[in-house]
Amino acid sequence: MARVEARRLGRRYGEVTALEAVDLQVEAGEFVAVLGHSGSGKTTLLRLLAGLDSPSEGEVSVDGQIGMVFQDLGLWPHLRARRQVEMVLRANEVSRDAVELLDRLGIGERAEAYPSEMSGGEGQRLALARTLAADPGVLLLDEPLSSLDRPLRDQLFGEILRLHRELGAATLYVTHDAAEALAADRVAVIDRGRLVQVGTPDEVYCRPISVAVARLTGPVGLLPGEDGATVVLRPEEVQLLADGELEGVVESARFEAGRWRVVLRVGEASLWAVSPHCPAVGATVRLSIPESPWRIA
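Now predict its structure.
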């Protein structure tokens, strides 16, 4: 079965440590997202796993053919879409029709187009089709949708998830987008070259190991707790109630997906809340939080 594994993987460039002691396994049929800020080491990790760079320490184990989609796509500008896929099929001795594969990605009618004649979304689909033409058992994706606007990005991400399920590949998806990461089977959060937490979406979102992880995985409010701990509050945990135990001032409110996202000032801290109604900016409101919220020591 296809799989990919990093063991104590590290990469240094001179005095700069880009990646340090990373342990990560992705099994066949698993979709793992690597979530982190720009410069955190996400792409370095992917390049090491793909064999495009050599580690300073540690090792990589890969079982299965690797396919990779780059952030800049890397399409050949002088070849039509059909020819780009045909070349990969021929190089990997895969017996398949190129136009059929383009059809699967929804761009069969663009088979004779050059990359310069294609939209951003079509170019992304072509890059995916070209990668899938090699019939990879391990699929590595380096922020392939980062240049697209949100509606198209969401649509194509859904297609990537569908293709992953159909292929059953061991898939590693690099992103800085928490919504994409939390759709994965597991999330590997990377910060300053180190994997700081690996877990299910529920684990990293509801029980983050650090403030950095809490902020990376979505909107969050932080309150000082007892014994120096930090109380972690997600928007859905903060309720605006007339008899709430805390008092806050409404700083802003915006309508999103049928509800109001409200930012509140509570003492020196800012909290997010979700409300069916829009409170007036500047108003003082009462709010309630869970009796036993998640705390970070």
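The mean pLDDT is 93.
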